[in-house]
Each structure stands twice: as structure tokens, then as C-alpha cells.
Amino acid sequence: MSDSRKKIATRGSGNAACLIQSSLVLSLLLVSACSRYVDVVPTSDEKEAMNSVLGFLDTVNESALTGAFSGLDSESYTHIVTTQTLDETGTVTTSSVDILDAAAFDPYQLPDDRGYNNARHETKFLYRFLADTTLGDISAQVVDIRVRAEAAKEVPVQNIRFFVDRESLNVIAIRLQHRTESLLYKEESLVYMEGVANGSGMIIPSRFDFQTTVKAFFSDPIRLSTSSVFEAIEAGEAVSDSVAAGATGPERS
Fold first, then answer.
1. What is the rounded average pLDDT of the residues 105-129?
2. Please, are residues 185 and 165 in contact by the beta-carbon 8 Å criterion?
3. How many CB atoms lie within 10 A of CB 100?
4. pLDDT above 80 (res 49)
5. What pLDDT score does 36 carry?
6. 2-8: average pLDDT
7. N or C end of the chain: smaller count of CB under 10 Å?
8. CB–CB of 207/243 below 8 Å?
9. pTM score
10. What are the backbone dihedrals phi and psi of residue 75, each rounded to the nearest 5 degrees, phi first?
11. What pLDDT shows up at residue 193?
């Protein structure tokens, strides 16, 4: 996966996309300024697992998913977005549902440096293959990369999971969690994007979710959640049966 260790290109909308992008940039700045270097020496088993996972990721096609969210147009897709704000207890304080023009979405990119794809930080993560799961009618192999507790303050990306179609080796979903904390600021966010194969086997967009909690010094926390569902206009129905049924994605919260 030549670009699997580089970037995830996804799409958002309006203020939510701006908040995500600003949050990620600030995360990187704060981590660079406030973190200390932790030298981690993995055990032989941990190093073997790391090499196995990274070797596998080099063989999969992440762009099959990320490309599905690029260049969406209003003639092919409708975008339905649910936006919620929540209080400190998790109670929803405001909620809205909007049907938007897919062509109006502004793209944004997650950081090129995910930590595990940086030689300086790769040993600060634990690597493993999880049990297979089913997305739609696809059997997906799950790869989990999680930062070690002692190194969590060094990198904003805390955990990333890839869901890979065993037959085509296309990545069909990505779940990414990042966190930053300093004396003046704390941010925790979760991004989940999922695609589904159409009749010809091409991955098309299904859903994109974003959740974040931001707490600045001397201010109340801001909690925002957006859940985007993409409907294929040509098919006349939601591209994912699980989405149409109102199901949540695999371990997104």
C-alpha cells in the first residue's frame, strides 16, 4: 500500500471540516512543542508483529477507499449529514439533519505522518491482526495499530484500524483516533470512513463519521458529532444496508 503510510483523503462539509482540520493542525503543533522523546525497544515478538502488519499493509489498496470520497458529484450521490452537539454528560443539546449537494463538500487530509509510518516512531506502537468482521456482505480482515501508553503524548494518532476485503485486498473502512493534551488544551477525536463495493466491485462511498471533544483552558468543553451517509442516486437507495437500517459502524465510538 504505497500511499497507506502517507495519508487518508476524506471529505467533510462546512464548519465540521474546518474544525477537523484546525484540530489536527493544532494537535501536531502541541505535540511537537510539549512532548518528550521516549525510546522504546520492542520485544522480538512485538517486532515480528510490527513487520508482519506493516508488510501486509504494503500489499493492500487504501486508495480504493480514499479515492471513493474524492470528486463526488451531485448527479451520482446525495449526502445526508446528522450534526449534534453534546454536553459534558453526553446528552444531545442540539441536533440537525440536512440533505446536501455532494459536490459542495470540501476535502481535507489527515496528517501525512501517522506515527507508525515514521521510522522514529514506529516502535512506539503495538501491531496486531484482529478477528475478521463483516461489512455489508464483505468479509474484512482487521488490522489494529495502537500507540503504547508510555508514548501516547509523543504522537497525535493514538489508534488506527484498517478493514481490508480479503478477496480484493481493497481497504473498505478506516477508523482513526487521535488525542492531544497540554496545560492549556485537550482534544480527542475519532474519524471513521467506510465504503462498499458496487456491482462491478469498485468501492463507492458509504459513510463518514467524525466525533470530537475539545477543552481549552478556562472554557467549557465543546463536543461535536457529525455522521454522513451517502446515497447513490442511480441506485435509488442507500449504498449500505447497514446505513439504511440505522446501524452504527464497527467500534466507531
1. 84
2. no
3. 15
4. yes
5. 58
6. 44
7. C
8. yes
9. 0.77
10. -80, -20
11. 93
Of 113, 1, 127, which is closest to residue 65 (Cα–Cα)?
A: 1
Integer Cα distance of 53 and 62 in angstroms: 14
Write down the H helix ranges in the chain.
14-34, 44-57, 63-66, 241-244
Contact 103, 79 (CB under 8 A): no
- Locus of grid cell 473502512: 173
Distance (Å, rounded) from C-alpha 245 to C-alpha 98?
18
User: Which three cell numbers, joined as nine digits, stand for 121?
Assistant: 516512531
Rounded mean pLDDT, 33-58: 85
Q: What whole-number distance in Å separates Cα of residue 156 and Cα of residue 32?
A: 10
Residue 232 has pLDDT above 90, yes or no: no
Amino acid 217 reads: F
Supply 79's cell numbers.
Answer: 449526502
Grid cell 512485538 — which residue? 46
- Using H for helix, E for strand and C for coil, what is the string for 220-244? CCEEEEEEEEEEECCCCEECCHHHH
| Angstrom distance (rounded) from CA 171 to CA 237 | 23
Rounded to whole angstroms, the Cα distance separating 225 from 86 reads 8
**Dist. CA 148–CA 130, nearest whole Å:** 17
Residue 120 is predicted with a pLDDT of 87
Cell 512532548 locates to 35
